[in-house]
Design a protein that fits this description.
235 residues; Ribonuclease iii, N-terminal Endonuclease Domain, Chain A; 2 domains
Length: 235
Amino acid sequence: MNKEQLDNYTDFAKNRLKINFSDTNLLITALTHRSYVNEHKKSATAHNERLEFLGDAVLELVSTDYLFNNYPDQPEGILTNWRAALVRTESIAAAAELLGFLPLIRMSKGEKRGSARAHQVIMADAFEAVIGAIYLDQGYPAAANFINQNILSKMQTILSEGSWRDPKSHLQELAQRSDGTTPAYKVLSEEGPDHDKTFTLGVYIGGKLKGTGTGHSKQEAQTIAAQQAIKKYNK
């Protein structure tokens, strides 16, 4: 990695993450996908999966601590659902995208051409790896502050939009309350071989298409379609 590339990561850490890394190599590793190492075996040796493992644990602890102390009257089941909404792939990937992660994640040429959903997963994994890197470089308080600024700050939005609830169940309640009908899901297309098939489904309310979703299972596609439809009710 040349000096200009290294400066890009240093500037990203300082200006976007608000972190001055003592060891910038930790950040670079956190933003290195396994596919990049496989494609550049001579120049790259470390990918982000170990840091992701660490960061995931730190994220769960910080989120749990926050919910436990800020919502003392809520039962375990509700807190578990709220935590799941905070740390799910979509929430973490959205935070990573807002910070400008994707252009700096080192991945193979094939992964760069991947789907938006694949990039979403890669960004979420990299975000957790960055948490792990911050924890190792700066300690728990810095990692907790980073999580608070970029993840826990979304808690009130999650509560107001009801996005912590199961999307399909939530959409059904909204549709029945507002339109007096039940959502219906329909397969719009199937692509790919049997072992790696991609499904696109639409959710219809009152005969009108309200959302679409694509995933590697019909259940995943239905969930994404329901989330899209819920956004229209929340506008």
